[in-house]
Design a protein that fits this description.
- With 1179 residues, the chain is α+β, with helices and mostly antiparallel strands.
- The chain contains 44 helices and 25 strands.
- Strands 19-20-22-21-23-25-24 form a 7-stranded mixed beta sheet, with helices on both faces. A 6-stranded mixed beta sheet has the order 8-10-11-13-17-16, covered by helices on one side.
- A hairpin with a 5-residue loop joins strand 2 (498-501) and strand 3 (507-512).
- Helix 17 packs parallel to helix 20.
- The longest helix is centred in the last third of the chain and has 22 residues, at 1082-1103.
- The two termini are 64 Å apart.
- Residues 500-510, 1158-1179 have a biased composition (Basic and acidic residues).
- Residues 516-529 have a biased composition (Polar residues).
- Its cofactor is Zn(2+).
């Protein structure tokens, strides 16, 4: 046995006359051979030390005080002692001093105890009292020593403890501390495997069974040890092979039935933990199902629900049942989109190439592998380093902008035509009119029942569409008059809408009414230039006119009354159309319909959704975050589990299916809701009625993709008033959602709209978002096995009879809406505004991508004024590269309306800058209801490094515009891409900074590498001062590898724009400032767009200062507000959300018990989000 050499004299900071100090000094002098020779004296000294420590609190403090070597003296005495009595005394002293166990560990105390243990075990028979004291002490020390398991295995202590347990199964006094130590041993994965090989798993099952209330404390420790052992998959297989799963279930049932007063909840929880760890493997789940485990845990959990203190049992049971719920494939024939678009060519590599190369029937498979399958650790992992984020860019060469346009100027010269303002001399035409806008000359087709005139002949493709529409509607079936009102209130179909003008210039629209009849609405249009400055306080003017027939109009729109159309000659239900022109200056229902006719979709939509036709007026009331109801997630999960327990109660009736293109709406006897999504931006693939008032909804994947399910926009009708319906969207993909933090879905009621309230409102109760039992194919999950979809569930009650309602992920904003708004904005142009609309390019789907130029006209055609006009700095803005982020379009709408406004600030802004704006980078994705991709099946915001002109035309040509500007030395002062964020609150920005990226990555860099102008922080800081929804604390300026192909990083790196940003707007709401606790609406989003403009004006004043060093110091004075203290770059991988009552478990396959909250009051919410997935949420 090695001896501990004490080389430091016993000098302490305690008083020199202290008795404990003198005794320790005496004991120190006896260490070594003197102690062996004079054992009795050593025993007397240690007895006195023990007495002082036990009777005087200050004595213990003196021994453990900083600078004291008392612990070393006692450990040295313990190590050299060979007498059992003396060892007892030293062990007793150490036990009393263990309030500071880390000191004992740091002095090597654990190793000395193991040495004594192994030495004592060699004595025959070993001293039971000594073994008892040693194991009791080790049980206290073990949790404080990170290397405890390794030391135990290397010293041979594992075998000593196992031997003692086997020999003392009936000796509870000694067995208890041995099991306590075994529990700590088993925390080490290598030890757990070794113990399993030595039969310890079977030994533990002998200890815990059969049911008995004797020695419950020992039973609790045994279950803890067994649970730790079963974390090893090898040991879990041993438990399955030994048929221990049915035994555990039977034992749990016994304790559940006999523990009426719930005094032994920890034992019941221990049994559940064992089951949970066994079911981490596929064999364990199979054994659990075969043993009727689902029914046993469901029934016992249901009986526990009334007792709040039993929540830990309910939560763990729920976790086990969810994990063991048989994995199912989605109820669709293929996970590829229901719509097909053939690409002109497919790149040789990438997910789209993989999609096209797959044979039929292999795109959606339920993997047979275990979840989180990996080889078990054969080496110790006690000293694991903290996880680091490997996504931060660490290559300094990539962190410094290169300003390399990449294409020869000869190729870029063609883009000069998009910058006429840089060469315009204004000498030819009058200054009273701006440059003409480049508008599509394609004739507008208004389908009618009669033959079209030759000048309005449709193209063959569109003619086929209109023919199919006429075939459906020109000759109504005989039963048309008996159709239910709800069925008649379907989406507006283009061929049922007729436009006409009377001699008073009133525009009239024929619109189908709830009873299938047609009525006319009259909308008086006031001068648009005045209306842009008006607010939204006007009351709705609802009118209903009798049908006078449609008049032929020669000046543009040709509307003909349909022969045989269901026009009523008497009284009937009338759909009153609100006069939205007074309420929404930039909305015109008639114009919207015309825009829809020029929009090309893959499914060839022929219907218009009512919300897009009527428009949306932001409600004046506040919409706070929904307060989460305690236990809501658990109750929803239990209802899902009931489907397996009581399968006969499930209807499983398909009521809507896009995979049946001829008739997606399944007709029935009126007992089911009716669904529809066949309109622009609509997304619902399938609706299944699972219970009388509950429906599973399946979303369509992005075209030419097999995933990206999140955006939804659907129509519901046929509802009963006052009945609560539950809707489950079962194939969401993100691992977390703001639906768990107060966000609600949006609903639009047609009855509300025709009653004077055309608006989207937040709705839904019992909302939660959780992992379900539908398996994601590894093909769609990037090769990852064992992934599942997530369910968004919400309940709602409908208020109106014969209503048609729409649900959406966020406020819809269609491509046709954009075209309508742009047309309206052009009508607002004054002689002082320079506005030009160009067609940047045509998309894959044949839709135009508009490019706007907005600035102020020069004061005159003098050289000085024209020179000032041409040399204004450029601001480049873009939005809606991701179709599902509709909030980006509402922010852009606010920006455009501000720029076209008549306020002095707007005029100053136009005089300060030239704005180049691409308001919708992904029209095809928006039109076809995609969530993230274009028709190419790719995320366009990952194509900026090398865009393909055929597959990514909008990105290719937008980047070319910026490359052209870089070539002519006119790179934008600011580039900003508007986005939406689904998992964070507030509005914030991502920018690019070398210095802040280096700080986060801890890479070595010289001061010259870190030299950087701080101007990139100016704009977001201004926004934090003036925009109530903006949060500087949420901004980040770190460059990540996974974002190197995004607009923000490419424009910063290749074009050399220092102020290159992504501006993220929350889909949920705010947790700070004026809007704290409120869900965000279109009014706040449009305000954010306007405030961005104001911030640019302030930025102009700041950048005009010669001494940029003082820019940030003067910022608050210029803004005129008190400067707030903001945090430096916030680079947060985890969600920054407050906890709430119910613990959320997103990972049903988690095998980390420590991370699981014990109850719904837990302060830490177990989210376990996918880190990379979270940061790549939107941009």
């Amino acid at each position: 046995m090695s001896r501990l050499k004490i080389t430091i004299l016993f000098v302490t900071r305690v008083p020199s006359n202290s008795r404990i100090v003198m005794l320790l000094g005496q004991l120190e002098r006896m260490n070594g051979e003197a102690m062996v020779r004079d054992v009795e004296t050593a025993r007397q000294v240690t007895t006195k030390i023990l007495h002082l420590i036990q009777t005087q609190e200050k004595s213990g403090k003196e021994v453990m005080s900083k600078g004291s070597s008392g612990m070393e003296v006692i450990l040295a005495s313990l190590e050299v002692s060979s007498q059992t009595t003396l060892e007892f005394l030293c062990i007793s002293i150490v036990t009393d001093l263990l309030k500071r166990a880390f000191l004992f560990v740091s002095k090597g105390g654990t190793g000395i105890l193991f040495q004594i243990l192994t030495s004592a075990s060699k004595e025959l028979p070993p001293s039971e009292e000594l073994m008892l004291q040693l194991h009791s002490l080790l049980a206290k020390v073990g949790p404080k020593d990170r290397k405890f398991g390794v030391k135990a295995r290397l010293s041979g202590a594992l075998n000593v403890t196992i031997s003692l347990i086997k020999q003392n199964l009936q000796n509870a006094k000694l067995l208890l501390p041995c099991l306590q130590v075994l529990r700590v041993y088993s925390a080490n994965s290598v030890n757990a495997i070794s113990l399993g090989k030595n039969g310890v798993v079977e030994l533990m099952f002998k200890i815990i069974a059969p049911y008995s209330k004797k020695n419950t404390s020992l039973l609790k420790v045994a279950l803890d040890a067994l649970g730790a052992l079963l974390k090893s998959k090898t040991n879990a297989r041993r438990a399955v092979d030994g048929s221990h799963v049915p035994a555990l279930l039977a034992l749990y049932l016994d304790w559940h039935r006999n523990d009426a007063r719930h005094r032994h909840m920890l034992i019941r929880k221990g049994l559940l933990v064992c089951l949970r760890n066994i079911t981490n493997i596929k064999l364990g789940r199979k054994a659990f199902i075969e043993a009727d485990g689902m029914r046993i845990l469901y029934n016992t959990s249901t009986e526990c629900l009334p007792v709040r203190t039993l929540d830990p049992l309910i939560n763990t049971s729920s976790l086990i049942m969810r994990k063991c719920f048989p994995k199912n494939r989605l109820p669709v024939p293929t996970i590829k989109s229901a719509f097909h678009y053939q690409l002109p060519h497919v790149l040789p590599v990438g997910p789209v190439a993989q999609l096209y190369s797959q044979p039929p029937g292999v795109d959606d498979v339920v993997d047979d592998s275990d979840d989180n399958e990996e080889t078990e650790a054969e080496t110790d992992t006690d000293n694991e380093e903290d996880e680091k984020n490997d996504d931060i860019e660490t290559d300094l060469n990539k962190l410094h902008p290169t300003k390399s346009p990449g294409r020869p100027f000869e190729e870029l010269r063609v883009y000069e035509r998009f910058f006429l303002e840089l060469s315009e001399d204004f000498q030819v035409r009058s200054l009273s009119s701006s440059s003409s806008s480049a508008r599509s000359t394609r004739p507008i087709i208004v389908p009618t029942a009669q033959a079209l005139s030759p000048k309005h002949m449709a193209t063959p493709a569109s003619q086929e569409i209109w023919n199919s529409i006429k075939g459906q509607h020109t000759q109504p079936p005989a039963s048309a008059t008996s159709r239910t009102p709800a069925a008649s209130l379907a989406s507006l179909e283009l061929d049922t809408i007729h436009l006409t003008k009377d001699h008073d210039k009133k525009e009239e629209t024929h619109i189908p009414t709830p009873d299938g009849h047609t009525t006319l609405s009259s909308s008086m249009h006031s001068p648009q230039g005045q209306m842009i400055e008006q607010g939204l306080p006007h009351a709705l003017d609802c009118v209903s006119l009798e049908d006078k027939g449609a008049l032929n109009v020669e000046d543009g729109l040709k509307g003909v009354k349909q022969e045989g159309s269901p026009v009523s000659g008497g009284e009937g239900a009338v759909l009153e159309v609100p006069d939205t022109a007074l309420l929404l200056p930039l909305h015109d229902p008639d114009l919207y319909v015309e825009m829809v006719k020029g929009t090309r979709s893959v499914p060839q939509y022929a219907e218009v959704a009512y919300p897009d036709y009527f428009g949306h007026v932001a409600p004046t009331f506040k919409e706070p975050h929904l307060e989460r109801v305690y236990g809501v997630q658990r109750s929803k999960i239990f209802q899902d589990i009931e489907r397996l327990i009581h399968p006969n109660d499930i209807l499983d009736k398909v009521v809507y299916d896009l995979d049946i293109p001829s008739c997606p709406v399944i007709e029935d006897s009126g007992e089911s809701l009716k669904f529809n999504s066949q309109f622009e931006s609509g997304n619902l693939r399938k609706a299944i009625q699972v219970r009388k008032y509950e429906y599973d909804l399946v979303l369509n994947s992005d075209i030419n993709s097999n995933h990206y399910h999140q955006w939804f926009y659907l129509e519901v009708s046929g509802m009963r008033v006052g009945t609560t319906y539950r809707f489950n969207i079962i194939n969401c993909e993100k691992s977390n959602s703001q639906f768990n933090y107060g966000m609600q879905v949006l609903m639009y009621s047609v009855q509300e709209a025709i009653s004077g309230r055309p608006r989207w409102v937040r709705t839904g109760t019992d909302i939660c978002y959780y992992k379900n039992h539908f398996a994601r194919s590894s093909i769609a999950a990037g090769g990852q096995k064992g992934k599942s979809y997530f369910t968004l569930t919400f309940s709602t009650t409908f208020s109106h009879k014969d209503d048609v309602c729409y649900f959406a992920y966020h406020y819809p904003y269609t491509y046709s809406t954009l075209k309508m708004h742009l047309a309206k904005l052009e009508a607002l142009r004054t002689p002082h505004i320079y506005l030009r609309q160009d067609v940047l390019c045509e998309t894959l789907g044949g839709n135009i991508c508009p490019l706007l130029t907005i600035t102020a006209m020069p004061e005159s055609n003098s050289n000085d004024h024209i020179c000032q006009f041409r040399n204004r700095p450029l601001i480049f803005l873009s939005a809606r590269v991701h179709p599902g982020e509709t909030n980006a379009s509402w922010v852009m709408k606010g920006t455009l309306e501000f720029l076209m406004g008549t306020s002095p600030l707007a005029a100053s802004l136009r005089e300060a800058y030239i704005f180049k704006i691409v308001p919708m980078l992904n029209p095809d994705g928006v039109i076809n209801g995609n969530h993230r991709c274009s028709l190419s099946g790719e995320d366009l915001n990952r194509q900026w490094q090398n865009p393909n002109p055929e597959l990514h035309p909008t990105i290719y040509h937008t980047k070319s515009l910026l490359q052209y500007l870089a070539h002519i030395q006119r790179a934008p002062l600011v580039f900003c891409d508007y986005h939406g964020h689904s998992r964070k609150k507030n509005v914030f920005m991502y920018g690019c900074s070398v210095k802040e990226t280096v700080w986060q990555s801890n890479i070595s860099a010289t001061s010259s590498d870190l030299h950087e102008d701080l101007g990139y922080r100016t704009l977001p800081k201004i926004l934090s001062q003036i925009a109530p929804a903006f949060s500087m604390a949420s901004c980040s300026f770190v460059v990540e590898r996974s974002k190197e192909a995004t607009a923000r990083v490419v424009v910063w790196r290749e074009i050399g724009v220092q102020r290159s940003y992504t501006m993220e707007s929350t889909l949920c709401g705010c947790d700070q400032g004026k809007y704290k606790g409120l869900q965000i609406g279109t009014r706040e989003l449009e305000e954010m767009g306007a405030q961005f403009c104001v911030a640019l004006l302030r930025l102009k004043r700041l950048t005009g200062l010669r001494n940029h060093q003082h820019l940030l110091d003067l910022e608050s004075d210029i803004i005129g507000t008190q400067s707030k203290v903001v945090s430096p770059t916030t680079y947060v991988m985890e969600e920054d959300e407050p906890s709430f009552l119910e613990a959320i478990d997103y990972s049903a396959e988690s095998d980390n018990e420590d991370a699981e909250p014990e109850n719904e009051h837990g302060n830490n919410v177990h989210e376990n989000p996918d880190h990379l997935d979270q940061l790549s949420d939107s941009y």
